[in-house]
Write a structure and sequence with these properties.
Length: 348
């Protein structure tokens, strides 16, 4: 939604096409007054809440959209939105958050519960549809170098990196007692919050874990006396936790990772696994510490490095500003204008 919000600001008269429109209050307020159009799935009972169950028909739903008359189409896709049918002379630019992980390199991880059908003929058919959609893209934009490489491996396409917008102004710096480490977000297995909990147990340091998700019960069972769970938090509470932490522990692999940037915006350092987007947003030894292995030992070594280093809140803040919403909109505007210029025509 954050990327879409900025794209909508760049093109205020453009209609917004979406698979289904079932916004929460925050999203509804952000896009109030915009021309939002949907696919035929909008009329299917339950599609708004259970749209993931309609994955096998999503390629058809996207192709059903009538986009005739447009000369520029921008898709914001982490799934199959890039499968839209593009008019012959139109330019299709895709901001790709990631090739669908559940179809490609992380299929086995996602193939549980309602995703159990993502195997065999259905999986292969969806992979073909995804690659066909990618073949219709004239220019890819990736949210990180990590995703740029995934786009190349999956689709054989080149991509330009434009880091996504982060509302850094919503995380001001300030004086606070930095007496505990912080970890959390969506508590799912691939984020490896278990490493942070195990490190806190072994190192006997205070750790606050925020957020909720399917891993929470397991994490609480393994947690020792120095680990506190606070559950889901609102923005104000999160900003306070971030501003008051000794450092944010980020042991998973994310395509980009918004939270490490928000933490640095508040003047706090980040301890992150050196793979994925964090390796592009955290400056090792300056705004945090990167560690080489997803292990408790490697994480504890990184925390020891952090504790022996004086951290500069201003340096952390300055690094975060490189990923501001204004910077994203400036870069995307420049890139889209360049593409249109290369095509030799203007746009409304």
């Amino acid at each position: 939604e954050s990327v879409l919000l900025s794209l909508a600001r760049l093109f205020p008269q453009a209609p917004i096409y979406t698979l289904v429109h079932h916004p929460d209050p925050r999203t509804a307020a952000a896009f109030r007054g915009r021309d939002v159009r949907t696919t035929p799935l909008q009329g299917v009972p339950g599609a708004g809440r259970h749209y993931r169950s309609f994955l096998p028909v999503m390629p058809w739903a996207w192709r059903s959209l009538d986009l005739d008359g447009f000369d520029l189409i921008i898709s914001s896709s982490h799934s199959l939105a890039k499968c839209v049918r593009v008019p012959e002379r139109a330019l299709h630019a895709c901001y790709c958050h990631t090739p669908p992980r559940y179809l490609w390199d992380l299929n086995a991880t996602y193939r549980r519960g309602g995703a159990a059908l993502l195997r065999g003929p259905i999986l292969r058919w969806l992979q073909r549809q995804d690659r066909a959609g990618a073949a219709g893209v004239d220019a890819f934009f990736a949210n990180s170098s990590f995703v740029r490489d995934r786009i190349h491996r999956t689709y054989g396409a080149q991509a330009t990196v434009v880091h996504p917008p982060v509302d850094v102004e919503a995380f001001p710096t300030g004086d606070a007692v930095r007496d505990a480490y912080l970890a959390g977000g969506r508590l799912v297995a691939y984020k490896r919050i278990d490493l942070a909990v195990a490190a806190a147990n072994r190192g006997r340091f205070r750790l606050v874990v925020f957020g909720d998700g399917p891993e929470r019960a397991r994490l609480e069972r393994m947690a020792g006396a120095t680990v506190t769970f606070v559950g889901a938090v609102d923005h104000e509470t999160l900003a306070g936790l971030v501003r008051g932490c000794r450092a944010y522990l980020f042991p998973g692999v994310e395509d980009f990772g918004i939270l490490p940037v928000e933490v640095q915006a508040a003047g706090s350092p980040v301890v992150a696994f050196e793979r994925g987007g964090a390796s592009e947003t955290v400056i090792d030894g300056e705004t945090g510490v990167l560690f080489p292995e997803q292990s408790v030992e490697s994480l504890l070594d990184a925390i020891e490095r952090l504790e022996s280093h004086p951290w500069n809140a201003e340096a952390c803040r300055a690094q975060a500003m490189r990923f501001s919403r204004e910077r994203f909109e400036e870069r995307m505007s420049e890139e889209i204008q360049r593409l249109l210029s290369d095509r030799g025509r203007g746009h409304n």
